[in-house]
Amino acid sequence: MSVELAFAPITELAEGLRNGAISATQLVELYARRIEKLSDSSRAFISLDLEHACEQAAVIDATADNDTPLSGIPYACKDLFDVHGVATTGGSRVLDDNVAQQDAEAVARMNRAGAIFLGKNNLHEFAYGATGENEIYGTPPNPYDATRLAGGSSSGSAAALGYGLCAAALGTDTGGSVRAPAALCGLVGFKPTFGRISTEGVIPYSWSLDHVGTLTRSAADAAILFETLAADNRKAEFTSLDKLTIGVPDAFFFERCEGEILDGLERLMAFLRAAGAKLKPVVMPSMEFTRTVSLTVQMPEALSYHNRYLEQRGNLYSQDFRAGLALGQCLLAEQYIRAKRFVESYRRDMNRLFEDVDMILTPATPVIAPPIGAVEVVVDGVAEPAGNAITRYTSFFNMTGHPAITFPCAMHNEGLPIGAQLVGRQHADEALIETTRLIEQDYDFELPLPDIA
Fold first, then answer.
1. This prediction's pTM
2. What 3-state class would DSSP assign to 107?
3. For residues 298 and 206, what is the distance between their CA atoms, to the nearest angstrom?
């Protein structure tokens, strides 16, 4: 089977399964061979369940059970999701003996739709970090440049898809942990409206900011996964770009951003105008304190989960996560409540903004994938922690809970993908995905496959 098939979207694979051009067994075997070949270099997986995947594929082939778009489609999930009989480690030594007794709700929905689970993906320990580095399981590299980061915290999920080791992946997004690595690796990363995909059976990082999200090769694939995973389904509100009013922030989201990324967004905006969409400047809520507010919510909530392990297993945490938990211990209830009030204010302000526009367009990240090991990046002469830069344009929408999607729109001259981000109204997830699908369909940009030795 061709290498290109490993990078084919779900829509193409599903058609091949339906018409008999390929079988579920052949697909699983294709990905299994690639995993064996590339597991050390991709650092994408923490654990595998390939024997069971082969058994499930054989059953699907024998019964011709392909009545859903995901039937026979191999997928992986971040190692925060419970899968019955498989350890859920969170990418940490702390939970290396934590064998799940049942499936997470998202995993159960995938499996009921006939998708085939391959294994658990690597991640930044307990999702605490946007670089995706993990001192135990290694750092997943970017498929377009192995000296660069895949991004995090869903680093292994992005690497698994980017290296052609699965057809789709589930991740979690607390500040951009699905959207940012997807953007850095040339994938589509989707974060739904808060609560529309269940987090039941997923190790929490920050329960009021956590979203289950998807990483796919196309917006059409994201639509298939969302229809499967969502607790409720709604129809998209429109079917053409010329009916859209798209807001473009007048500050922050286009500041301290690499020039080539801005050029890529400008070309995308020119296409949207030519397609009939109306683009108008919008004034976003003040971003001055947003990172502080987010951290003030995150760390006490993370502590509320991990406090049970600190006394007996505290030495097993990585140094950076222990430092974060220590911050959580130092924050007062008053400070946490004040931060939550900021969050509610941000949400109200954003809801009012969407009275005038259908969606908001921003760059996905202000930088391309930083080098592995980079502590800081410099943009416009200003140094910034690498993890902060990676999620600078994404984290705000975890606080407001609005749906957001990132997708590739250009290539940097250093051979790395450039991503755009669309943000939609609360519960207008389907319209957001459909808009991205229409852009993919008509925009004159085709992402090249990564050159993986």
1. 0.97
2. helix
3. 5
